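Before the break, one more example. Copy the sequence into your notebook; we will annotate it together after we see the structure.
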Amino acid sequence: MIPPLAARQSRWNAPNPTWLLAALLAWLLATAWARPLMSPDEGRYGGVALAMLHSGDWLVPRLDGLPFFHKPPLFYWIGAAAMSVTGPVEWAARLPSVLGASAAAVALYLFLRRWSNERVALLSALVLVTTPFFFIGAQFANLDMLVAGCISCTVLLGAGAVLARERGEPWRALLAGAWLFAAAGLLAKGLIGLVLPAMVIVAWCAATRRPAALKLALWLPGWAVLLAVAGPWFVAMQMKYPEFFDYFVVTQHFRRFASSGFNNEHGFWFYLPVIAGLTLPWFAWVLVPQGKSAARAASKESTEGSEAEADALRHRRLLRDVDWLMVIWLVVVVVFFSLPRSKLVGYVLPALPPLAYLIARRVCAARALGLKVRATAMGSAAVCVACVFAVAAYQQPPGTRLRLPPGQAVAPGERVLMLDSYYYEIPFYWNLREPVLVSDDWQAAARDPRDNWRKEMSDAGRFEPARAAATLLQRTRLAATLCVPRTTWIVGPNTAHLANPWLLKAQLVAVNDGAAAWRFAGSATSDMHCLDAPAAAAPSD
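Here is what the structure looks like once it is written out:
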């Protein structure tokens, strides 16, 4: 049967999905190079990916050489593969986020082109990729956008399989794709990649009275795809590190979700102003009054000219089902991440595709597909680009700006030691191939419940204590480490010489308003007094 919308859509030229993906990648990558990595997230995740490439160990993510199990490895695999071609450059470190965003936008377009109409599909994709919140998330090197893309594809493929099965159309490939992206979500950020899309689909089936569709959750080929793709890495980590399950699943998922001991505590309402503010100017369309005549026109818009009233009725029901899916998807994501006290802005990125659809529907209902829409899209795109360059100008961590002078580099056999601090960006920008030494009070760090770089390294050291003992130095071991005939590059706050007067013996090679780097030659005779304060110059006669 010819879809009743065919005549109405004839004037809309459907873009080839391949060309659409290429255009999205070009837009999202256009400014991905334009700013340095931000601390701590971008430096941390980009550094772990680069360390994976340098070490050749593609199985165990490592932070400064120690097993880092805050998150699974998919982001690092993609980033390391990109940097194997490009070297350590910013856009390659951000490529996993760009790919996640592109997957979400293309999946939204394809789903709506099939189950709504071409105009809504194109406008929804346009709204999504020109929303500043989404655009910046796509150019931020952390795991939030990658898992958001996986969650979006899982929801849309799963819902598409349900709708196709009801209409006697091929559905198994769609459902297999949903399970595949659920497995990718597991490898991107853990259980949330599976649990959140499952909650959306179950709630949608319940709200639209589709209890029979829930049987698809028991589809054995889907479970086979999930276990074949995601299972091996989790099994391998548990066999190699018996503490893995408790740390990765219990601590990083359930304790983190329920506890108030982690950073970034906010009230339940936190995400409402975040979403409203960061999706301007598109979000303003939500506030545009919609008259009764416009609402009636919107509900019948896609059925005018139908050959049969039955086709019109079926299509109106289908549009209601799509509307329900998007509303439930948006609400489930926002409410789910509003429950824990610890909140980060990027957590709600999976809510942006359904919000983009709802905004597009609002625009269509207002019959505003002209100058106002073009102006909003161009203004929103300009805000996206302006945000990137504003961040580049005003957010440059000290570690990012601490570059070695031309002609100087850490030579093979030389070491890097960080004093009472860890600059995530330095291994990336200095292209270090070996872990750095980090000096601190690690006994106190192990007792500190706060979520910071010390806790990350202390937790990582529990999985390989011998390696941790060689990398995480107690302050009392500084003399034994440095007073040897070996060059060590020392990085610390630019005031570190006040607490460590022996740094006056070292060569200051780089300094900025937050950090400094020294080149310390050590002691040719392994003199344990090499860290004694330099003697004061004798007064002249």
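The first helix runs from residue 6 to 9. The mean pLDDT is 87. Try to locate both features in your own notes.
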